[in-house]
Amino acid sequence: MFSVRHCFHETGWSLTVNLLHTPEQPAYLRVVHASAWYDLVVTAGFATPWTYALVHDALSSCGNALGLGALPELDPWQVLFANLMGSVVVVWAVLRIVRPLPEHGLLDGIARTLFATWQAYALAHGVSRLLWAFFALEVAFGVLQLVPWMRGRNADLVGDDAGPADGGPLSTASR
To answer: Quick one: pLDDT at residue 95?
Structure first.
């Protein structure tokens, strides 16, 4: 489940425990960056009461036109929570755009798992089927950002000298 590394620093030996293996950087960081731009574009309109009213009307009209159902009428509580979500997600997106790090992808993948869970709950309770499009993108970005961490972890668990019985390759010639 984790790897342990011994490191020598100027101050002496230290022990580092890594619970997960960081995915390969260039391609992974492009996914983190793309998911951040998606979040910024999709949620910026949720960040203020005025822009949320416009987004709400547009989504409701789109849902009606596509036969997926309208959104409920605006009320102050709904606007408040939409604005809170929009504000936090916009700040989180800007951080990932300005400084995309592998750890940001891991945390974003976890957040997307939570968002997708609550979206699935809402869909099961009869909200507009327009939510399916957002749900699909949450799941896709979540998978793209979490699976590389799991692959790295599995590689650490198997190790370089593992044989077929340990989950390693049949021969070392294929490496």
So the answer is: 98
- Residue 40: which residues within 8 A CB-CB, separation 6 or more? 90, 93, 94, 97
The dihedral built from the CA positions of residue 144, 32, 121 and 20, taken in this order, carries a sign that is: positive
Cα 42 to chain center, whole Å? 14
Closest by Cα among 91, 10, 82, 5 to 51: 82
What is the crossing angle of helices 76-98 and 49-65, to 10°?
A: 100
Asked if residues 43 and 86 have their Cβ atoms less than 8 Å apart, the reply is yes
11, with CB counted inside 10 A (0-12, 13-18, 19+), is: exposed
Residue 1 is given by DSSP the state: -
Whether 93 contacts 37, CB under 8 Å: yes
Nearest 5°: phi and psi at 8? -105, 120
Query: pTM score, two decimals?
Result: 0.74
pLDDT, tens digit, 9 for 90 and up, residues 73-104? 999 999 999 999 999 999 999 999 999 999 99
Per-residue pLDDT of 5-25, as tens digits, reads 545 556 665 444 355 567 767
Q: Which helix (H) or strand (E) holds 16?
A: strand 12-18
